[in-house]
Design a protein that fits this description.
It is built from four helices and 18 strands. By secondary structure, the protein is mainly β. The protein has two domains: 178 residues, no CATH class; 120 residues, Immunoglobulin-like (Sandwich). A hairpin with a 6-residue loop joins strand 17 and strand 18.
């Protein structure tokens, strides 16, 4: 009786070994670089910062897969695989199909963002925003938000593959899982709301070019070389032209220190006006203030003098000085030296 029970148990163990399946090879690796990396899009709802992940956009994740069961079963029916990504919900069919699992080198799927990701994509955009602000003092956050940018994040998202090698008979299945972190691209999308908030650059104030007030001053004796009976009269005339409205104050000064009263000219617009005619009579009484033309008496005139017009207002206008000579026909009126 005991011998029969022992033989029956041995046969059962042999049957289990014959029908159980085992995972022969199983590895999952992340693709290198970013050429095949998934793209996650982040946007701003207020133009102040990035705050939402676009859940309407499909995101394609991919990983390198190498899987093989000890027993494949007819038509590879022993295989079962499931590719998942943390924080994302699958919206497309599994790849590879079950019967293709031992014959391909990758697994991939189409997903949409859910909300329980191990990585904060929104924070990644805003951290990079602060970094760019620190590196570009001439930009505001609205400049950066309006334009947007892309980021490459290494090992950002956790992906897993669950492999099951089902028994080909009534034996046991073998199940295992592998996980990797996938490189991911993040598109921090430009915001039109932020664009509207960019501070307007101040319009440069055009500094009016100061047009000088006095355009021209003319001043000269009516006759530069006077010949006549002495006492004789010396007359000076002049004119001032201006570029804009304003007031001018001027005065005549002679070589012997005599000064005229102060005169004014008011201009309501650009234009020119005559100066006050200034006359002086030279006679015997002028002897102390007149001067001989020269000691050798070779000059053809008896007296020489000058008058100057000084612009008192506005300041900074150069005076104009003009000389004159006088030759007396009546030599008896010559002033002695």
């Amino acid at each position: 009786m005991k011998k029969v029970i022992f033989i029956g148990a041995s046969l059962l163990v042999l049957n289990e070994a014959a029908f159980a399946n085992k995972i022969k090879k199983f590895s999952l690796k992340a693709p290198e670089g970013y050429s095949e990396a998934a793209v996650v899009k982040v946007y701003s709802t207020n133009g102040e910062k990035w705050n939402k992940i676009d859940q309407t956009k499909e995101v394609n994740f991919k990983a390198q897969l190498n899987a093989e069961c000890k027993y494949e079963g007819k038509g590879n029916k022993a295989y079962k695989g499931d590719f998942t990504v943390s924080g994302f919900t699958q919206v497309g069919a599994d790849y590879p199909a079950k019967h293709l699992i031992p014959h391909v080198k990758e697994t991939k799927g189409t997903f949409r963002f859910d909300k329980n990701s191990n990585f904060d994509f929104v924070q990644a955009c805003n951290v990079e925003l602060e970094k760019k602000l620190s590196e570009n003092a001439d930009l505001t956050k609205y400049d950066i938000l309006a334009k947007g940018f892309s980021l490459n994040y290494p090992a950002a998202v956790k992906a897993s593959y669950y492999l099951t090698c089902k028994p080909t008979g009534i034996g046991f299945a073998d199940t295992s899982s592998k996980s990797v972190l996938l490189n991911t691209k993040i598109q921090c999308q430009g915001s039109d709301l932020a664009k509207e908030k960019i501070p307007k650059k101040p319009v440069p104030v055009k500094t009016a070019k100061l047009v000088k007030f006095i355009k021209q001053v003319k001043f000269a004796p009516k006759v530069k070389h006077i010949v006549g009976t002495c006492p004789a009269q010396v007359e000076f005339n002049g004119e001032i032209a201006v570029n804009r409205p304003g007031n001018i104050e001027y005065q005549y000064v002679s070589h012997d220190g005599r000064k005229s009263p102060k005169f004014e000219l008011d201009f309501g617009k650009a234009g020119s006006k005559k100066l006050r005619v200034w006359k002086r009579t030279i006679n015997k009484e002028d002897n102390p203030n007149a001067f001989r033309a020269g000691s050798n008496n070779k000059e053809k005139y008896d007296y020489k003098g000058w008058y100057r017009v000084d612009i008192l207002k506005p300041k900074g206008i150069k005076s104009i000085q003009k000389s004159y000579t006088l030759s007396c026909q009546d030599r008896k009126m010559m002033l002695k030296k």
